[in-house]
Design goal:
alpha+beta, disordered N terminus, two-stranded antiparallel ribbon, about 425 residues, globular
Length: about 425
Amino acid sequence: MTYKRSISNIVLLLVFFIFQNSLTAQNLAKVNPESVGFSSERLEFLTNTFKQYVTDEKLSGSVTLVARHGKIAYFNAEGFQDIENKIPMQENTIFRIASQTKAIVSVGIMMLQEEGKLLISDPVGKYIPEFQNTTVAVANENGGYEVVPAKRPITIHDLLTHTSGVGYGGGVAEKEWNKAGIQGWYFADRNEPILETVKQIASLPFEAQPGEQFVYGYNTDILGAIIEVVSKTSLDNFLHTKILNPLQMNDTHFYVPSAKSNRVATVYSSAENGIERAPTEGTMVSQGNYVKGPKVSFSGGAGLISTANDYVRFLQMMLNKGTLNGVRILSRKSVELMTTNNLNEAEFSWGKGTGFGLGFTVLEDLGKRGTLGSVGEYGWGGAYHSTYWVDPAEDLIVVYFTQLIPANNIDDHEKLRALIYQAIED
């Protein structure tokens, strides 16, 4: 009897420890800032500045997470998730991350290459035949444009680097894109699978010849459609199976589960005298259909919602050269290629001293950019004014979430960077 009780107790202890580990593994450990080289006193400048943005009605609220050496040194939820209903911002508030989806989908493409299911040098038309012969709109002297054949097929690498020529429906052929009903980056309201939308995109004239210019646009939505074709499953299922579940990103979804709807941050817009609540529906600036929409279109370019805790886990995996908590998502060499500049200066002109890898901007010249950071830093952001970066030289990750679109007359991104780096003491 005693022997059986002992065995039973051991089993219960094992179950307890496994359960505890499964809970704690979901988040990086929070530590005293000094233990990872930050000054608590100097981080107060960061806290006070973002309190002031809320007081001055430039932001409804924000969540800022700073991790170093694999641990959370600073985690601050400021202001309100919903001003009118007096719901405070929380560390686990859910945000529309828009183009921060792109990095996750780009990782998915690299995983398929590692599994031998595609090559990023492959033409897109190999997987989506509608892209075998694409066209480009070229302006003429009469103020109009001519549609000419693409000089070569668009490749997956072109999509990863935004050099396919596919924009967001602008350029000289904007009217054709408008007529087709494809404008902006917002697909949450569309009641058709993303592959069908992407096939329509293939029929429209693009803004530049493949490989000749950096044109930010639907490239990663097309990558998401390629993932669906190659994996023979939805992008939603693929990302959860291959990336989100293994990394325990439990609050990252294309559409908000009803049980989590009370955690979604409200969208605000910069106005003449502060900020105002964005419309409920009808525009890209709206609150969106992430809770009550058709839930059919999985946009690889801008579709995910997430939390700071989830997104830092994804970035920590990248900083760890493809692994997190013993789970390998990517090889070290794939991470190196993704976070290395793949373009020349003429192709990428969004910021001095920066280039573009496969899904991320990459800092090549600190002095040319003229803001605090390190060579080799990579990151991006989202349309709702969120941003993030990874600084391998400092073993540092920054995730900043807010919901402000458009964001006018606010310098929060610049001050965020300055106030984080000034607090490093080691």
